[in-house]
What does this fold into?
Amino acid sequence: MVLIAACDHGLQPPADAGIGSIRGSITYLGEWPPETELNDLRFVAMRFVPTDTADFFRLNEMEISAPLATNVESGVFAINSAQVGTYFYSGIAQQFEDNLFSWRPVGLYTANSGIFSVSRGETVSISIVVDFQDIPIFPPQ
Amino acid sequence: MVRVSTYLLAILMTVPLHAQSVTGRVRAEDGVPISGAHVIIEGTSIGVASNLEGRYVLETDITGPVVLTFSAVGFFREQRVIRLIAGTEVELDVELREKVILADEVVVTASRREQPLLSVPVSISVLSADDLTRRNTIVLDDALRTVSGVQILGNQINIRGSSGFAYNTGSRVLLMLDGMPLLTPDSDGIPLEALPTSEIERVEVLKGPGSALYGSGALGGVINVITRDLPDVPTTTVRSFAGAWDPVRHKVWRDGWKHGDEYRPFWGVALSHAERRSPTFGWWTSATFRRDAGFTALSGRDVFHAFAKTIWRPKPSYKLDVLIGLMARQRDNFIFWKSARDVLNPGRVTFGEEEVDPDSTPNGALDDFVRQITLLPVFTHFLGPTLFYEIKLRAFGTLVQPLDDETGDRKKLSEGTVGARYGGEFQGNWIPSPNRRVVIGFSRDAITTRSSFFVTGDGDELGGQPEIAAFAHIEEKLSKTLHLVGGLRYDHYRIDSSESESSLSPKVSMAYEWFPNNIIRVAWGYGFRVPSFAERFTDNRDYLPIVRNLELKPERSQSVELGVRGVGELGRLGSISWDLAAFRNTYQNFIEPRLVIAERAFQFINLGEARVIGSETQLKWQSSSGKIAASAGYTFLSTEEKSSGDELPFRPRHHFVATLEAAVFGPIRAGADFRYTSEPERVETDFARFVTDAEIMVDTRVLDLRLSTEHGPLKLAVLINNVLEYHYVDRPALLGQPRKFTVQVTWTR
It folds into this structure.
């Protein structure tokens, strides 16, 4: 009975979902916020649509780029090891205070209703426009 | 033995002509005389044996109060305090209670005094010194995993569903060493590594609230570690062991770590010595070192601990025991894995594609150097045949220094934790009549902790949580078969400069011997627990965002239990004992960690009401020859969080343990332990927001085998743990122990 009970050997490694890449270009419009409000700036891609800043805790369901250059007219970003899957809400996020929850979107990926998919070993290219005079509403309606 | 008897005879022959004497008869409870019973004046070498009629005559030149100890094979020991007056004779008849096969264990945790397990009106399991040695127990949790109703989650202990996974903060199980609380000041789980495993006489596990006797912390149960008494002859033991962790079964896991394909070694040595230096003084000491490379990356550790206990009886009516312990440990503490595909490497919670030094320690592991010191003196004074008191002092200090990621050097203490728990207790024991026992006492304890992790309500990192308590415990034997117990304890805690908490914890229990050696028991009691320092004051975002909760209230519980315990003979099939229990525990202001959206962080909060209903069945069997023994225990749990109707997280519904021991050939013995814990009915997924695959839990099904033989002073044992190579999680995102092989050699002189 004991042998039967343990013959499946328990926990096993799940199948490898694989990784792909996300690359993109950003165009900035309007006047940049003051330096005191530019704590951080990154590209963020979420595999869900957030409803509250508390969703920023779902770190395992999002991809976040390295910090982006500020006070420029355009820029690029790359995430080389993005989880395979569909991303429903993506854009450029600005941290306006030194607090994990003081983030807001300043420009969203809007093509194809804002949805894109990452496949194993492939690279997705997207482009985003950031207009500091017309930033998106958060949480999304 | 011959030498001892000769010595006794020599002493008896030197007794003066007008010596005092004690005479009487030693009989069993049914009146049958016991021949060969030993009657000894405690703390001396003076004693006699009873004759065929159970009669004894003990003469001595000692005057004043003395403690007489009566013992005989197959019977429980009894003690009486008498006053000897010069030239007079005292008559003292004593009845000894017969030990029953499989039920001869004695416990102290249920009533703060020694009593037969069979008559205890609450649920208690006992691990003997032999149980620990057979399993090569290095750290106590290895042995506790084999106890019915006990589950180990990392370094937290869950008794009958009282605790889930709580990030190593706060414990609903009180750990005691020789009856004294041993919670660390920083509440970093239960300090099981700070125990002298080679010097343990037995471990008692009280299941259910013990707050009426032991106060806060005993909400879910009590683990009382009893150190051994002195042997009759000097004894030296050297125990050494060595072994290796087997590489894990799955290649994907092994490939993720450069040492994944290697056997990872561990070894250790324990030295101990005990002796009575004189009739009034004796001591034991032990020192243990062990090194474990660990079966995952960053899980190795070096541990050294040394303990000593002195027992001094300057007069027959006085006793002073002092236990001192030191522990030093340098460890890599694996906190959470990278993912279920990479379980041998600690994970790293990062925000975005940050530049990370690949040589730095991921925050899924924490390296530290810990030193702990324990000092436990106990003074006992026998005032008369029915009255004695004990004064117990306790001090427990800890220093935790994090290690530098790059150099491995210890960081400053200001970046770690400095803590002390200290206090004392008075306990008076009075036997006003043969059928009544009264225990009263009071205690005063304090905790002082300075930690970079804790921010108190005063804004000061130095926190104190002083507590005072008073307790009373009365046992009344209403008839030969009915035993009633009542208790009440008042506790008062200071939380911070502006807040304090008080609690009154009553209990009532009853044991009725409805058939010889068969007891029905009913127990009802309150329990409570003041939030630990870590639960209330931890405020840190280095690993996970955790914020303090100054509004956290004590949790309270109410428990009802109905049980039967008994032993029986099966003729040529041997003997059997059983213990069946049904219990219902309800909790108010239950404390659990949750991701609090409003705080944007984890926080320990009061949940409201929760309940745990369950049953436990334990069976033990021993063959008539005594060569084969088996035991099994099954616990069923049903839990509910009242506000949501959900089950409590991380509680299994089924828990089963079984043990088999057999003398297979000559001095060769074989043994096996099997344990099964079902996958928790509910897994809290907040942790999985940060840690990949932390929501994955599976059943636990572990089989351990062992083989041993003895030749003179040498004992050799071979052990294989998790022989079926079953992989499970010890707690979320932490792989349980894989298969390991151990060879143990013990030399005793």
Observations:
- The two ends of chain B are 16 Å apart (CA to CA).
- The interface with chain A takes residues 249-250, 252-253, 340-341, 343, 349, 351-355, 541, 545, 595, 597, 600, 674, 676, 688-693, 696, 698-703, 724-729, 735 of chain B (CB under 8 Å).
- The mean pLDDT of chain B is 85.
